[in-house]
Structure formats: C-alpha cells, structure tokens
C-alpha cells in the first residue's frame, strides 16, 4: 500500500500528486510505510515525484559497500584524529579508546541500520523520525533531525578536508623544518581540495558507482601497505613492549584524573566511526535498498572496527618516542610515527600520501552524500528556496544545485579556521554530536512508543531491538556530557572546547528557522 503525505489539504509544489495530511492511522495500516513496496520478496522505493526530482538507480551491492567503507574509513579517521587520544592517555587511550568507541558506536547505530531496512528513503533519519513520531509533533521533530543531519554532514566533510590540508603542510614541514604553516595556507589547500572534489562528483556522477567499488579495494590495499611497510622497516630496532602499548597510561592533558582523561579520549575516538548513515541517502539510487543498505552499513562498521584497531596496534608497537609524536612540529602524529618507524622521509611521505589517497575517496564520497542529503531535504520542502535546490540536473543526472550549495557552505565554514583554529577544531566533536543525535532521536521515539510501530523489514534485530533502542539515548547523553569537556587543563582561549557553543548555536538557528518560516509549510517527507 502506498501512503501519501498531506498537510492542511494543500498541494505540494514539485510533486506529481496531491498530498494529504498523514495520521497515525495512515502509518499503521497494513502494508509498507515509507514509500516502499514489496515485490517478489524485495523492497523497492516507490516515491512518485515529478521527473525533475528523481534519481537513476546506479549503485550495486559492492559499490554501496565501497562508498560506505570509503566514508567511514575508520583506520584513516584514527590516523587523522590520533593527537586527541594519545594526549589523553597515550597508546592506552588510543587503542582501548578505539575499541570503546567501536562498541559505543555499534550500540548507537544498530537501531538505525534496522530502520534503514524498514523505511528505505533518501531522507534517512528525518524520514524515520517522521514515520515513528507522535502526530502532533512529528513535523517539527522531523524538521529538526533533517537539519541536524544535513549540518552534521557538512561538518564531516569539512573535518576530512582539514585533515588532508594539515597532512600536506605536515609533509612540507618534514622536508623543510623552517617552514611554518599559517592558517590561510591550510585554508587555501582546504578550498582547493573541496573544489577538486566537487568537480569530480559533478563530472563523474555517471561513474560514481564504479569509483565507489574501486575505492573499497584501494583503501584495503593501502591499509595493508601502511601496516606492513613500517613494521617491516622497523625490523632490527626494538619494538615497544606489550605493556607500553596496552597498559602504560601517559596523561599529558593536564587533567588530574586519569579516568576523566581516558573517558574524554574514548568519546573522541567515536569520530573514527561516524557517517554510518551515508548509504541511507542513496536508497533511491539502488535496487532492493531494504536489504542492500543495511548490509553495507553493517559491513562498513564491522570492517572499520577491525581495521582501525589493527592499524593502531601495529603502528604503536613501532613508536620510539611518544612525546615526540605528540609534540611533532609537523602537527601530524601519524607522520611522526611513520618517520620513527622507517627513518626515511621519502617513505614516510609516501605512506602519508597513500592515506591522503584514501581520504580523496572519502571526501569525494562525503561531498556526494552532502549533496544527496541536502537535495532530499529540499525535495521535502525543508530548506529555504526548496523548489530550486530540489531539482535534478538533466545533463549530469544529479542534484547539481544542492551539491554546489553544500560545497559552498563547507567553504564558508572553513573560513572559521582562518580566524580561530580552536573553534574550527571543535568541528570533530560537533560532527559526532549532531550526527549521533539524528541516530538517537528516532530510536528514543521508537523505544517510548513501542517497536510495533516499526514496519516489516528484512533486517530485524528481534529481541535485541529494544535493548539497542533504549541504550542508544542513554549512551548519547553520556557522550554529550563528556565530549563537551575541555581536552586539556588549564583552560585557555587557545584550548577552549567550543563544541557546546556550536551545537547550541546550530540548534537555536534550526528552531528559529522553524518558527520563522517553516512551521505550517514543512509537512514532512514524501512517504
């Protein structure tokens, strides 16, 4: 049965159908909510939009997994964000924090994976929120989650761009110690990478499926190379002892409590696993998304957990001076570890270049998802000028306007780095909080209202479902509290954690936008 939205008995511009207001009774009728239908045991997305807002199906199972893994790329995230955990407890926090972050994220995400199977659609979390929420507030909750998800993806892409830019300047410092990178140098590299990545997404949209499949194999090959080469070239030199790697706690953060430092480090390690919802935004671009999307999400998460944990263990055994890794003039701890392991600038730069190569796939995929997320929300009238940004370009076959809007906003956000590196660096925590919030809100609603509200689905958590739906909000509250603490003491203007300011500011803007222009206009996703 196909369910259609409606709001105040009005028609919606951009849809080929007249849309009516949805009620709990509509959503609870027998059939498959979420604009989906079953045929021969397979669930297909069957939204009916006009020809200007539809996407072609191009992503195969392996391409979907490749895109999910290239965005998640947990071992690359661990390499890029290594400074925080090792400053908050050395190798112990880096390794056990990574494991804790993996477990933490898995609990937070399992419920979302199930929802992606039950309600496939490009909207992702805000779609699930609308279907599951109470009739009197589902529009606002869906709107809030949609904006949080969209902003979070801008943050995720911006963080990847920043890592790439600092990797480039780090390599320059390694070869030219007298060179001091400035914020505008890094920002220019940031803009250059963003521009190239956006051009690739636009120009190569017709082969993005193949590129995503290739990225899976390339990233796994680079992962093995970045482990084997340092370990092999370190042969003949003493490796670190297991006690140093697994039990030697070194707190350089200034926190008087080692436990507090460790917990904050664990929360930061969750960054390695964010972006699990990426493939949900491609649900309308693949056959049988109810099965393929959760498979890709679970596969990418499992692979990310194993690769990141293995990568950190192998590299930390090769460290010769942890203090030097933390205080390296390159500003890139992983580059310092490569150099200590290989004693060769050329090899170290080559290995870091391979990681940058993986980040290219990650950033390109992230820009793709940013555009799709923005497009889906515009199609559902969640943005200003939604009709303009919801169009799919006929020549490129992609949401060109939404993709360009996302890239421009990432570029504008990057300007903050020129004014305050500290404020911009809070982007990592902001990406974690806002993205996880979009995973937790629909799960919390489901836990309160009852799991019988969840439609039939191929991927079913069964009796474990309620455990994940209840645990996710609880863990999210813990995460939010600890990740907002300063990462170092004493607190100064240079090390202040601005995460809470960013999150509260974004939330306030979303609420103002709702009451200022979208209340009574936004009616929820087309389902």
Give a written overview of the molecule:
By secondary structure, the protein is an all-alpha fold. The chain has one domain: Amino acid/polyamine transporter I. The chain is 64% helix and 2% strand. The protein has 21 helices and four strands. A two-stranded antiparallel sheet has the order 1-2. The longest helix is centred in the N-terminal third of the chain and has 38 residues.
**Which CATH architecture?**
Up-down Bundle
Q: H/E order of the elements?
A: HEEHHHEHHHHHHEHHHHHHHHHHH
Relative helix content? 55-70%
Outline type: globular
The count of helical stretches stands at 21
Biggest sheet: strands side by side, in what order?
1-2
**What is the percentage of strand-forming residues?**
under 5%
Radius of gyration from the alpha-carbon trace, in angstroms? 23 Å
Largest sheet descriptor: 2 strands, antiparallel
Indicate the structural class: mainly alpha
Q: CATH class, please?
A: Mainly Alpha
Keywords:
527 residues, mainly alpha, transport, Amino acid/polyamine transporter I, disordered N terminus, globular
In short:
This is Choline transport protein. With 527 residues, the protein is mainly α.
How would the blueprint of this fold be written?
Blueprint lengths: L23 H4 L8 E4 L2 E4 L15 H12 L1 H7 L2 H5 E2 H29 L6 H8 L5 H38 L7 H21 L4 H26 L8 H5 L3 E2 L6 H12 L19 H28 L5 H5 L6 H10 L2 H35 L6 H4 L10 H20 L1 H5 L1 H23 L14 H20 L15 H20 L9
Antiparallel strand pairs: 1-2, 3-4
